[in-house]
Amino acid sequence: MKRQYTREEVKQLLSALERQCREASKLAKIAEHEASKHSFGAYREFRDKVGEFQALVILIEQRLRNLKSERSDDLRDQFERLDMVMLALLVRASMRFFFVLSANPILPMGAREIFMAELRSLHDAHEKLNRPNYSGKLGAELGRDLETASLILEEIIDKAPGLLNFHSFGNLDS
Questions:
Q1: Do 128 and 134 contact (CB within 8 A), yes or no?
Q2: How far apart are CA 39 and CA 72, in angstroms?
Q3: Cα 157 to Cα 165: distance, rounded to the nearest angstrom
Q4: pLDDT by residue (tens digit) across 25-55?
Q5: Sign of the Cα pseudo-torsion (76, 139, 55, 20, in order)
Q6: For 134, phi and psi rounded to 5 degrees?
Q7: CA–CA gap between residue 156 and residue 42 (Å, rounded)
Q8: Is the CA virtual torsion 82, 20, 25, 150 positive or negative?
């Protein structure tokens, strides 16, 4: 038998999720500023915070599925609201970071790892935006921001073919 969770246990995790969201927002602002100085350190801290947030998301989703027979609509709504806030923050912070980075003629060390993680992250964000319970709730602007972030990332990758040369993989869109 699966463990059952109480509303209070879920509420505590939702509070932690909200803290992670606030901290990530602060780190995103610092990362954008640091990108203009050819530094990835602050952006890595932001991405680490997003990773912590995503780990909490997994825990909360599991607990919501195994909530004791109590009402959960309000908890689920709060969870989805926080998840959407973070999704919007991630897309916009990535777009701004990549925009600043695209103006840099020389890419800092560690760019390859960030590009690979960001490609996955943008793909996951796109998938989440298309989920029925998220679709349309974040507005068309976020979808455009996601597309812009992807295009800027592709431009950066094209500027640094020695780091990642996807042209040798053929057409990735098919």
A1: yes
A2: 43
A3: 7
A4: 999 889 888 877 767 788 889 989 999 999 9
A5: negative
A6: -115, -25
A7: 19
A8: negative
How far apart are alpha carbons 30 and 35 in whole angstroms? 9
Rounded Cα distance between 89 and 93, Å, is 6
CB 82 within 8 A of CB 17: yes
Counted domains in the chain: 1
Residue at 121 is within a domain: yes
Q: Which alpha helices (H) appear in 3-138, and where do they start and end?
A: 7-35, 41-65, 73-102, 111-129
Dist. CA 152–CA 136, nearest whole Å = 24
pLDDT tens-digit profile of 97-130? 888 777 777 766 566 666 767 777 887 888 887 7
Residue 169 falls inside a structural domain = no
| Residue 1 in domain | no
Domain presence at residue 26: yes
Task: Tell me the per-residue pLDDT of 122-171, one tens digit each, with 9 for 90 and over.
Answer: 878 888 877 887 777 777 788 888 888 888 887 776 665 454 444 444 44
Separation of first and last alpha carbons in the chain? 44
Q: Range of 52's domain? A: 7-158
